[in-house]
UniProtKB/TrEMBL annotation:
Residues 33-90 form the HTH cro/C1-type domain. It comes from Zobellia uliginosa. Gene3D superfamilies: lambda repressor-like DNA-binding domains. This is Mobile mystery protein A.
Length: 153
């Protein structure tokens, strides 16, 4: 990877590391708004008053959150009304952005090398498994260095 891209990936991985443990937290079935409100023994009327909304509007907010149909701005508003800070982010499934790039580069390299080797086999010029694996690794390293947009196709 070029130095600038590599640095950007490292910086982003450092920022996302703060969210790592958040990925282990399960969202309550009824959503956070309902769970926090009921834990605080707050009625929908009381939360509605803080947001200048009706009891029915709060119920809709809770339903929309539970079904994933709520806006980020609405969650920020509710957070403020509950004297809480709403935070959102993304957590790489493979641990880090660097791992994600490595995985995608290897997948692309494997696809290219195996396709090329298949064509060579048809011409009786195929290469062995050890050479294939070495070629995949070398190509993956080159793909990571270049960070072409085709990595995400």
């Amino acid at each position: 990877m070029r130095n600038k891209k590599k640095l950007l990936i490292e910086q982003l991985d450092q920022k996302l590391a703060n969210f790592k443990d958040a990925g282990m937290v399960l969202v309550p079935q009824k959503g956070w708004v309902n769970t926090i409100r009921t834990t605080l023994n707050m009625t929908r009327d009381q939360l509605g008053t803080k947001l200048n909304l009706t009891k029915g509007a709060i119920q809709k907010i809770e339903e929309r959150e539970a079904t994933g149909q709520i806006t980020i701005n609405k969650l920020k508003d509710v957070g403020n009304a509950l004297n809480m800070k709403f935070i959102y982010g993304f957590i790489p499934k493979d641990g880090t952005i660097e791992n994600l790039v490595n995985l995608k580069a290897e997948q692309l390299a494997r696809k290219i090398v195996l396709r090329t080797n298949q064509n060579m086999k048809l011409e009786n010029q195929g290469i062995g498994d050890e050479k294939i694996n070495k070629t995949i690794k070398e190509l993956a390293d080159e793909i990571k260095r270049e960070m072409k947009k085709s990595l995400w196709d």
